[in-house]
């Protein structure tokens, strides 16, 4: 008898238990070689006073089986409850969010009949680090963190995925025309890694035109790799354009652990009525079977599911008098898929996951590079300026305080307001005073941390509120910061 792969299963909240029962029944009927361990996460755990929504026993199971099939959960509003998905991604190192997006026209309404794209979204970095600060009465900020290993891992994953699943092209989306350092790094690493996969086409698009093309011409895309926030947004755009928000599954992949779920939420409005569509979770289960190297069972289930759709057996959310023959509930839909196990679709291309080819993809990024020579050459000092001192007044007060550093420029929201500014009504409340060891960026000399501390002490003595500093470094002589607009 084949050895069963242990998997952890969470039934979740709202419609979660119904769609999971339907999915587990299907896995059982298809003879998936899995040994489920049930854990409790979500609303009940939150309301028992555990703000993470997941008890230690559940962690223990996930870390042991390394595979989680999860129904959606309800995060109670207010009360400091943390998003379970974010906690899991970070704790388990689930660096890749993989969302296949397929159109099933004419059976599911969409303007496009040939969408078959996969979004590979970076899952741990970017603006989702959740590091936000309020510096003044009026100004808030959010820190965008992008690391080289993070970029390498996700981009390598996208190309490995393309190669394993016989995809032809990987498209990178970023906004490096504006964010030259963070998104610029992502784009640079994409070019480096793309060069190692000559068998796969590559292209880069700025995320705004890329998103417009997903909406207007989605069939041109194959695999898309992008940063966390853009990936979050385009996943929903793509799913909506494909017309299959309720049908899509997603995988959260780490090198050790992987989590599979539907993309929709717990739909409390229809919970307990046996009308929810279990297809999103079924697709997540298919992704899981491929991941644990049971491609034959994945193929069997996907083809039975496609045949059910073609036969017009539809749940209420996708029912249309034109293309449906029978409106069914959650349980009846699962039974219809089970009854078609072994059959092939006739309208859609039959799925065929190749045996042996799809064991999980592990990506660790490149080897660490030799350290570059890092030199401290100045500092940006951010001020809360509640008296709205003009840039001229400010420069008069601070120009002589830098010791070996000179005041080079004062900016507000990235725009130069001193010297020689022609801005009519500058925003003065929050400004950034740049001190550098030299005016000429080719002549920069090293300064010390003490020079910066002394500058801050002097600014404090004259009553200025320094709310934040950013050290200015060069790396092998290259600037580690952007020049202000107009600097
Ligand atoms: P939702 O996806 O639960 O529901 C949006 C709409 O789609 C509702 O009208 C719902 O009835 C319908 N719908 C969703 N899934 C369906 C299905 N399988 N079959 C038929 N109709 C379906 O989104 P929401 O209302 O914004 O969120 C509800 C709850 O889900 C919230 O507590 C939210 O935090 C949670 N949520 C959880 C996850 C997750 O666990 N991964 C993801 C998103 C939202």
TrEMBL record:
GO biological process, one term: glyoxylate cycle
EC number, UniProt record: 1.1.1.42
Swiss-Prot/TrEMBL cofactor(s): Mg(2+); Mn(2+)
Reactions that this protein is recorded to catalyse: D-threo-isocitrate + NADP(+) = 2-oxoglutarate + CO2 + NADPH
Keywords: Glyoxylate bypass, Magnesium, Manganese, Metal-binding, NADP, Oxidoreductase, Tricarboxylic acid cycle
Quaternary context: Homodimer.
Record-stated family: Belongs to the isocitrate and isopropylmalate dehydrogenases family.
Role according to the record: Catalyzes the oxidative decarboxylation of isocitrate to 2-oxoglutarate and carbon dioxide with the concomitant reduction of NADP(+).
UniProt name for this protein: Isocitrate dehydrogenase [NADP]
Biological classification of the source: Bacteria, Pseudomonadati, Pseudomonadota, Gammaproteobacteria, Legionellales
Gene: icd_2
């Amino acid at each position: 008898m084949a050895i069963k792969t242990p998997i952890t299963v969470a039934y979740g909240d709202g419609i979660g238990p119904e769609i999971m029962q339907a999915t587990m029944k299907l896995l059982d009927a298809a003879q998936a070689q899995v040994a489920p361990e049930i854990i409790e996460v979500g609303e009940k755990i939150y309301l028992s006073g555990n703000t993470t929504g997941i008890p230690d026993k559940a962690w223990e199971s996930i870390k042991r089986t390394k595979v989680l099939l999860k129904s959606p959960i309800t995060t109670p509003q207010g009360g400091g409850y943390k998003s379970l998905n974010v906690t899991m991604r970070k704790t388990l190192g689930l660096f890749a969010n993989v969302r296949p997006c397929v159109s099933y026209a004419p059976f599911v309404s969409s303007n496009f009949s040939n969408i078959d794209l996969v979004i590979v979204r970076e899952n741990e970095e970017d603006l989702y680090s959740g590091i936000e600060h309020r510096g003044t009465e009026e100004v808030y900020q959010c820190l965008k963190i992008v690391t080289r290993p993070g970029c390498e891992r996700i981009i390598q994953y996208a190309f490995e995925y393309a190669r394993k699943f016989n995809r032809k092209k990987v498209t990178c989306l970023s906004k490096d025309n504006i964010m030259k350092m963070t998104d610029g790094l992502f784009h640079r690493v994409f070019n480096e890694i793309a060069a190692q996969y000559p068998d796969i086409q590559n292209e880069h698009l700025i995320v705004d035109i890329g998103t417009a093309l997903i909406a207007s011409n989605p069939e041109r895309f194959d695999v898309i790799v992008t940063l966390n926030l853009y990936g979050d947004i385009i996943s929903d755009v793509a799913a909506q354009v494909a017309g299959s928000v309720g049908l899509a599954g997603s995988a959260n992949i780490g090198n050790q652990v992987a989590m599979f779920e539907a993309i929709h939420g717990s739909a409390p409005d229809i919970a307990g009525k046996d009308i929810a569509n279990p297809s999103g979770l079924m697709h997540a289960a298919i992704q899981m079977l491929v991941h644990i190297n049971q491609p034959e069972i994945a193929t069997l289930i996907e083809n039975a599911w496609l045949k059910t759709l073609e036969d017009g057996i539809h749940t209420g959310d996708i029912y249309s008098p034109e293309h449906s023959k029978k409106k069914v509930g959650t349980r009846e839909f699962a039974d219809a898929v089970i009854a078609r196990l072994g059959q092939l679709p006739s309208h859609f291309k039959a799925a065929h996951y190749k045996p042996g080819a799809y064991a999980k993809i592990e990506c660790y990024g490149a080897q660490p590079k030799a350290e570059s020579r890092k030199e401290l050459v100045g500092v940006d000092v951010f001020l809360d300026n509640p008296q709205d001192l003009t840039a001229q007044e400010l420069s008069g007060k601070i120009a002589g305080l830098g010791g070996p550093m000179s005041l080079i420029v004062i900016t507000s929201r990235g725009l130069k307001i001193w010297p020689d500014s022609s801005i009519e009504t500058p925003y003065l409340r929050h400004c950034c005073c740049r001190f550098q060891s030299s005016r000429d960026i080719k002549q920069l000399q090293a300064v010390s941390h003490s020079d910066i501390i002394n500058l801050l002490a002097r600014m404090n003595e004259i009553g200025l509120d320094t709310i934040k500093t950013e050290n200015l470094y060069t790396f092998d002589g290259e600037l580690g910061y952007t020049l202000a607009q107009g600097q």
